[in-house]
Amino acid sequence: MEIYLLLGLCLLLVCAFEFINGFHDTANAVAPVIYTNSLSAKKAVLLAAFFNFLGVTLGGISVAMGIIHLLPLDMIANQPVAFGICVVLALLFAAIIWNFGTWYLGIPASSSHTLIGSILGVSLAMYWLDPTGVSIPWTKVLDAGKSLLASPVFGFLLAFGAMHVLHLYVKNHDFFQHPGRFWNKFPKTWIKASLISSSAFVSFAHGSNDGQKGVGLAMLILISLAPAYFAMNPDVDLALVKQNVDVVQHRLDNLDLTKVSQTDAAVVLEAKDSINYIESVITKEEIPLTERITIRKHILKIQKDYKNIASKEFSLVPQASAAWEMKNLDDIAPNIATISTVTDYAPWWIIAMISISLGLGTMIGWKRIVITIGEKIGKDKLTYAQGTVASLMTAATISSASHLGLPVSTTHILSSGVAGTMAHEHGKGGLQGDTIKSILMAWVLTLPVSTVLAGLIFYILHFIFVR
Residue 388: is its pLDDT beyond 80? Predict the structure, then answer.
């Protein structure tokens, strides 16, 4: 009974994180459409909530799986339940504290930076307590860090360039006006349509990326605290998985390892060991609960090994099938993807829970960030064209990142997009230095502060409940 109560508490905290994410990050999506009087605040927020819900529901789980793989789940699952509870609580408390604090101050900070920093902080704290038992996935951490750092720059440049194109081809000067107080307070229908559609696009993209982070957190909790039940996808077709395991096994058995480097040969042999284990277990009518976390470990090992050798050139042994003439292993990528469905999944109720939490959070707390986006980034007010461009470029950048399974910051991309449009219209003197400094400070400080905060919270909880 206690484990169910703890699971419930942790999942409730994930909902709280996504709720805060909703009124913290999603305010960026509705800022242009509210500020330009294209929609009332109530209608804009409801629109954003709906499209965020769709984004989480339809956006896949690639980002969620990327979040999960940042932590050494195998090591956590083999520890006492109290250890996993400490990990989860440290992550969530650190993320919630920083997100809520920056929202209260009206600073557009990044929930993505916060979450990645919290995960890194807990991982470092675990490594400090037991260096031999923890392997920090630095490659994945660096990939996530690069996407978080590069995406705002990309958003700025895209928005700057898009404004230049608009001025070349759009000759209607109404589009380049900002809302007035009386006679031009409300935009024309076609301008309103462009702003509303771009806002909906940002909300959907936000849900497909930021919402997935909540799904990843929830799955991290389920796998950490109840690995026997959630380490494997219960709905996966094991017969289909076995067919693909057989193909990969046969393919690896036909590689001539005498003609490659020792490092590549060792990776192939490790992958073959994992494939052989899965082959031996997956034929059972019912896989024992105690073996499911081990299967998960081997499938993740196969994914990692395949990534390391997929582009390498191999020769085939003389007796290999003549049908296989490819020099690398690109041809088994679909088979690896099918095998990965055993571990890369999220139950429908988790996706629904995160979608609802994000949607509800969107409905409150938007005003602080809207004012910052509309009036405090540039020295002039946001125009209709700037609002549309910043939103479209943000949505395009986030969608591209989601397709690649990379976490990015809606907050920083949109803020950078607005800054890009302001720089184009007014030059570097068109930006408000104090606001830009605040955003940059939040951008620079979020990762180290959340890392230290999460590591400290984990160490304290570990000292109290585990040691």
Answer: yes
